Structures are given as structure tokens and as C-alpha cells.
Amino acid sequence: MISPVLPSYNRAKLSFVKGEGAWMIAADGRRFLDFGSGIAVMSLGHGHPALVKALTDQAGALWHTSNLYVVPQQEALAERLVEHTFADTVFFCNSGTEATELAIKMARKYWYESDTPERTTILTFEGAFHGRSIAAISAAGSEKLTKGFGPLLPGFRQLPFGDHAALREAAAVPDVGAIMVEPVQGESGIRPLPDQCLKGLRDLCDEYGLLLIFDEIQCGVGRTGRLFAHEWAGVTPDIMMVAKGIGGGYPIGALLATENAARGMTAGTHGSTYGGNPLGCAVGAAVMDEMTKPGFLEDVRQKSGFLRQKLEGLVAAHPDIFEGVRGAGLMLGLRCKALNTDIVAAGYEAQILTVPAGDNVVRILPALTITEDEIAEGVARLDTAASALSQKIAAA
Ligand SMILES: *Cc1c(COP(=O)(O)O)cnc(C)c1O
Questions:
Q1: For 49-291, which CATH class?
Q2: Does any ligand 1 atom lie closer than 6 A to the CB of residue 216?
Q3: Was domain 16-34+294-395 assigned CATH 3.90.1150.10?
Q4: Ligand 1 contact via 215 beta carbon (within 6 Å)
Q5: Closest CA to 292 of 228, 249, 344
Q6: Strand, helix or coil at 211?
Q7: Where in the chain is the domain with CATH 3.90.1150.10?
């Protein structure tokens, strides 16, 4: 008989009753160090006092009014996002996938309003992940995401990762209107796009008048040691999706855009009942306030260097298990020789939580507020897990 909860996930037999900073506590009292942050969601750790206060204060005052009215909490968060990014305007939704939906709609509407409605195709990249709606899986295009869910939405063309000639050729096709890319691919195994490539994409978009769309749902909001990952390359997109870390655990997504890119999105063209509700926006504003405090991102970059060095040591100590480290900031990937899911499972035994990804990678995504002592402890636990897995493999 099917379980009461739709069995669409591969779940570990673990559950938690409490979170404290970089720690999660299981029902039996075991304390797990959280190197996954709910897949880059708990950007400021569990139970951050400023976030708890923002949420509970708002919960005591007003939960929902609808977008029939002005929502001051939306304005406060939008102002912060506009102040700290390329964007002129922000739409709030409830998840990353919904932000992707609007990015696609916005790009199509932009060309419709520009009297070239045939420019409906969006170029995307192999290994991409933009969400699980029909539009988002059609955009990513992989068999893993799309098999059995056709007919897919037309209007996307996937390109191989890193093939410049193919990209150049594809951008010149007259039905193309936009390029959509994750500056650091998350789900496919923490694959950062080199700064040169992001610059090249911007140049290509400028050359052909295309919109550049960055999916920073996983790599944004301080994760790479800058507020947004594309800042490392010194280029800006026209449209950007944000979710995960911006809510620090409260479900919220956002679509940021320039005034030009957003010009077709007039009153009545898009909406969301819950999008931009006062609870989520109050928490989002608190997240932004924490991350824009002087020294916050410098601290993330410093801890990133420390974590990376520790992980390099771990890889060197277990050449049978690991192959190398890649990524940026506190978004690092361990390339594995052993099966990544076996390493994650061995981590559970050692009370360290990590996240598997494509390309046989284990993702390391701790809270940005984690301490160096906790990083050292987490890597020590990974070392224990790797040793246990080595023995198991040797015995098999
Ligand atoms: C998680 C993720 C999404 C989808 O976000 P949801 O909130 O799960 O809908 C889209 N793009 C990227 C890069 C992601 O990491």
C-alpha cells in the first residue's frame, strides 16, 4: 500500500525535533552537525534570534492581507534587494520554481512587447536545475527530470556545458531571446562557471540583445562569500531568481529584474496569492540585514578558506574515498571515488549531515554562521565516516 505521504523522495530514516545554529537534534537526543542546511536554505543556521524575532513579531501582528493591498514588508525587502544588487524591481513568490516560471514569462513578454514575439527560445545548459514544474524541467531538459512527464513545454534549447563554439552558434539563431544559467550549478554537483564564462555570456547577450537570466536560487544570498555569486565575475544579469537562503528557512522566492527586462510585466500580468506575504518578507528583510552587516561576507570568505583547506586534508587522507574539492565560498563539493550516497549514509552514522549531488559529488553547504571550531568538528566527523566506509569496502 502506498504511504500516506507520496513516496516521491528518497528519504533517510532520520528525523529531527530541534535546530540550534549549525546543529540538528534527533528525537533520540543525538546531535548532528549540519553541513547541508536543508539544501542551502538555513543560511543563518537554525533558530537565529533575529529571524525568530522577525517571524514571531510579524506572526503576532498580521499574517496575510493579499496583494490587493500594499504590503509594507514586501516594500522593505524589495528596497534592500534593489539597494544591494543590479535590480530595479522585485516580484515575490514562495519557491525557487515559481521564480523560474516568472523569469520565463518575463523573457517571453519582453520580446512580445519589443515587436519580436518569435524570440521565445531560452538557451540553457546541460546539468542545469531550475525547479520541478513542467516549465522548469523543460528548461533543464535532462532525462532524469523529464522522463515520463511529456509533452514538455517548447521554447528551450540545451547546450553542452563549456562548449563555446556551440553557444556562439546557438545565440545567433533568430528565435533566441534569452540565456538562463546557474553561476554555480548545484544539483549537478557544484560546478562553478568560471568568471571568464560569465563575462563571455554577458558579452554574447549584449552582442545579440539577449536577456541574461541567472539562477541564484542555490548559489545566491551570501553562499559563495559574496551576496550573489555573479559578483565574483563583475557582470550583472537582466533577470535573477532567488529563493532558498533568502528566507533562512521560511518559504520565499524572488525574481529580481532590471526595469528594462521587466517592462512587459504590467498590472494583471502575473500574481501569487501567498507571494510576498508579510511573514516571509519580514524574515527575508532580517536575513538581508544580517548579511549586509559590515564584515559578515568577509567572515564567510575566511571560513570558506578554512573549510576548503580542511577538506583538502580529508581528500588527501582518504584517496580511496575522495577525489577532490570544488566550488566557492561555503558551497563546496567533494568529488568522490566511492559512491556519494554511501558517504552521505556513513556520515549519518558519524552524526554529520551532507547532501549528495550529481556527478558523484557530496555537497558541503553549512550555515554561513558556522564557527571554525564547528567546521573542524564536521570535517573530523567526515573523516570518521570515510574511515568506516573504507573498512566496509575492504571487508566486502
Ligand atoms: C532548489 C533550486 C531550484 C528550485 O527551487 P524550489 O524552491 O525547490 O522550487 C531552482 N534552481 C536551483 C539552482 C535550485 O538549487
A1: alpha beta
A2: no
A3: yes
A4: yes
A5: 228
A6: strand
A7: 16-34+294-395
